[in-house]
């Protein structure tokens, strides 16, 4: 996203500090932002198209709300700046309750292009499928968002004749202090922010004698070297 667009999103967030939505007009925003009305209008259209804001026309102008995706964009920049001024958090500790997924991960991880990247970049051939953990606390969910702001180990997207497969990034991890693996953050995950997906070179459930409902501890390392 262009810096000028991000700046408009940021300025909108300042106006929304106390409210969930903002009732305004492009004329008023033009005065507040010091931008031409046409520029403000164009920025709002693009931000809406990107899914970062929602707009609803009212008799008094329009109502603007920053979406969850927009808040995540702002939050990611905050965490990046935090790492610059306060230092990078090198490790993140998560605890989550194990649950069964719908089996999609096994299919995607068996695709050769993905699998080859995991082997090359993580140093192991992952067992097909992910260990799915429902994070136990709000602080864990926030910590996951902070982890997502780090670069991680990139798993690149690719195309075949049928479709495009999304990208992901990984962070090396230790599961229950016993198994070396990685946390995978998928670009197009069907899970929400409260779910942590973990992979390893072994079948984690069997190796640790786990079943749905068990609490699992994952120590995750932000640095990629």
Q: What share of the residues does DSSP label as strand, in percent?
A: 25-35%
How many β-strands, per DSSP? 12
CATH architecture of the largest domain: Beta Barrel
Q: What's the total helix number?
A: 8
Main β sheet profile: 6 strands, antiparallel, barrel
Order of helices and strands: HEHHEEHEHHEHEEEEEEHE
The CATH topology of the largest domain: Elongation Factor Tu (Ef-tu), domain 3
Net shape: elongated
Give the helix level as a range of percent. Answer: 25-40%
Gyration radius, rounded: 21 Å
The figure for the number of domains is: 2
What structural category characterises the helix and strand content? alpha+beta
Can you tell me the CATH class of the largest domain? Answer: Mainly Beta
Assembly level: single chain
CATH 4th-level superfamily of the largest domain: Riboflavin kinase-like
Would you tell me the overall average pLDDT? 88
Cα end-to-end separation: 28 Å
Uncertain segments of ≥5 residues (pLDDT<50)? none
Describe this structure in words.
The chain is an alpha+beta fold. It has two domains: 3-72, Winged helix-like DNA-binding domain superfamily/Winged helix DNA-binding domain (Arc Repressor Mutant, subunit A, Orthogonal Bundle); 89-221, Beta Barrel (Elongation Factor Tu (Ef-tu), domain 3). 38% of the residues lie in helices and 28% in strands. It has eight helices and twelve strands. It has helices at residues 3-15, 26-33, 37-49, 68-86, 104-110, 112-122, 138-148, 204-207, and strands spanning 22-24, 53-58, 61-66, 91-99, 131-135, 153-155, 158-159, 164-165, 168-175, 179-186, 195-199, 215-221. The strands form three sheets. Strands 4-5-11-10-9-12 form a six-stranded antiparallel β-barrel. A three-stranded antiparallel β-sheet has the order 1-3-2. Helix 1 (3-15) crosses helix 3 and helix 2 packs across helix 3 (37-49). The protein is elongated and about 60 Å long. The model has no long low-confidence stretch (mean pLDDT 88).
